[in-house]
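Quick one - inputs below.
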Amino acid sequence: MTPFDDDTSVSGNDLPDVIAMAMARQTLRSLVPDAPPTPSAELATVLREGMPAAAPEGSRLGALTRRLAGVGVATKLLLATGVAVAGVGGAATAVAISHEVDHHGDGVDSPRNHPATPSPTPSQTPSDAAVPVAVPTSDDKGGKTETERHDGTRSDDSSREGSSGSDDGGSRNGSDDGDRSGSTSSGSDDSHDGSTSGSSTSGDTSHDGGSDSGSSPQPTSGDGGSSDGGSSDGGSSDGGSSGSDG
Amino acid sequence: MRSAEADPRDSDLVVAARDGQPWALTEIWQRHAATVAGYLRGRGARDADDLTSDVFLAVFERLGSFHGDDNDLRAFVFTVAHHKLVDDLRRRARRGEALPYDAGSDARTEPSAETTALDAIGDQRVRELLDTLSPEQRDVILLRVVGDLSLEQTAEVVGKRVGAVKALQHRALAALRRTLEQAVSL
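Output:
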């Protein structure tokens, strides 16, 4: 039986522990240096100059940095993905807007491209010679009224009355743009572009206009449709009295 | 070995340190750096001096959340030291690196050959003594003997109950007594 047989018990006499503690203290004291160790360069700076002022608690950037530093890798990846998706969406929106602007410049006419188009007034006469101007003339055959264009095309206005049809006939669009395209000022504007004015494009555009006017529920579709058809070479959808027949 | 002498600046020390006053930080360093270095050395830290500096940098950064007097500050310092030590040991275990000490590349001032020999003998004896203990027993004995912490403070540092710390201390002292008596009998 040795004096250490009861070392697994913690309820024994404390006197051996006190003695052992004194021995351990004497032995382990050699671990403690007599003077503090040499501080590192960073710590020496802190001891010499003090701690730098911490960022205020209310600092948004500091709080954000601490919060980001505290989250895990998965959360950081998720945040990065969200930022990337938002960036792609923004870029796509920018491209779509620029594309729409480009289309507006290409001559694809749409009501939303002309949100503030003035209402047609008779006094607005195109000054450009390339714009087809309808000149009502009287025909010997049955008193038909034809519109003669400066580009050489003629349209029959027999199916409609007045000169409003000839004004619409000068337009290049159907009834969907009838109100606006009836204005000669729009024709003048288009003639500056050189894309839709003149005889070279009147057929195409009036063809579209003819088909549109046929199906358009606008109140003036009857007159406007026939007038469009009459004024355009390709306005066969509306009618029988188109200029091509004459 | 409690070194908490009545210092007139004790009451102001923590307050001034929390404000980042250089004199207060230096005083804390002077009071506790040596014992922290001894604790880290006894627990097997590879570069105890550098780790001691890291410990006090962390302590100074966290002083804003500390509440207590100088005695509590000692426990607070050793808590930070214990966490730093655990991190260091884990890092070394992950890397698996064990670089031998190269005296030729040591830029520090070299002591005399006799001092070196005596220190080596002393350190080797202490290391052999501590190697007979488990890591938990080593923690408790070093914090109680070198850090001069109470049972309650030691329990707080290592994150155990006081009863568990007391049991660990009892078994550690018994093992040390056995080893020392064997060494004397030889």
